[in-house]
Write a sequence for this structure.
């Protein structure tokens, strides 16, 4: 399930990515966010061990949020023989700097942060997508509002300007912009996504740890429009548990 690679614009992109939102203590982890900042963000060696274990479990891509400690951890992992292809998020507060750094790191793809995507400023988004494309990376976008933003994107002037689209997706509808996520909403979402005709990356599939890997991946199997997945992993043990179930090892 979701093993191997996809070819996009002549680049081979891994279908399974190690997500790095735990590494930066992303707010959707609630009280655990501060623990992650202490245990991971301030300890590149610990992040590198998670990267190495994920690689050993078969993961060949990393959904990199290019904070300096995370980049340091990636270099440590690379120096030890655990080299992952980079599919990166460009942070809104340092877009130009991130694009330059990620280009130097030979990122396979760069995705616009949802803070920018979900503003739906098409002129700004189109400009950023052009800059990404000029680096030779595959351009993409991330949303935190998959229903609202996807509807708007379908009629937008940038619809043909990007290849990758990362969306939150889990059976609970957690971290998704819907009051309910029953059969009607799922069918509606699937229809919109298929109309976009993009390579779809699912994120938040574990609902920030609310769902077990087995439950999460059983649901993911039913989403036939998902091409890739990014899993945020906070420890070597989590890497073992999650990727062994994802890959059915």
């Amino acid at each position: 399930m979701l093993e191997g690679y996809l070819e996009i614009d002549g680049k081979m992109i891994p279908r399974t990515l190690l997500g790095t939102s735990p590494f930066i203590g992303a707010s959707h982890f609630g009280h655990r966010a501060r623990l992650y900042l202490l245990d991971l963000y301030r300890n590149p060696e610990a992040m590198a061990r998670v990267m190495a274990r994920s690689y050993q479990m078969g993961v060949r891509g990393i959904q990199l949020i290019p904070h300096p400690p995370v980049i340091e951890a990636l270099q440590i992992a690379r120096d030890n023989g655990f080299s992952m292809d980079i599919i990166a998020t460009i942070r809104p507060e340092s877009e130009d700097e991130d694009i330059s750094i990620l280009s130097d790191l030979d990122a396979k793809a760069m995705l616009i942060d949802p803070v920018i995507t979900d503003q739906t400023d098409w002129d700004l988004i189109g400009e950023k997508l052009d800059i990404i494309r000029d680096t030779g990376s595959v351009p993409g976008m991330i949303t935190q509002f998959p229903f609202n933003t996807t509807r708007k994107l379908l009629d937008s002037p940038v619809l043909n300007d990007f290849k990758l689209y990362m969306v939150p997706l889990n059976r609970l509808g957690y971290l998704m912009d819907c009051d309910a996520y029953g059969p009607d909403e799922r069918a509606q979402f699937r229809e919109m996504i298929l109309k976009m005709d993009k390579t779809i990356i699912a994120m938040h599939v574990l609902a920030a740890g609310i769902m077990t890997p087995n439950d999460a991946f059983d649901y993911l199997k039913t989403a036939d429009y998902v091409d890739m997945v990014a899993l945020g992993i906070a420890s070597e043990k989590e890497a073992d548990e999650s990727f062994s179930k994802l890959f059915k090892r």
User: Anything to note?
Assistant: The first strand starts at residue 5 and ends at 8. The chain is about 45% helix and 20% strand. Residues 122-135 form the longest helix (14 residues).
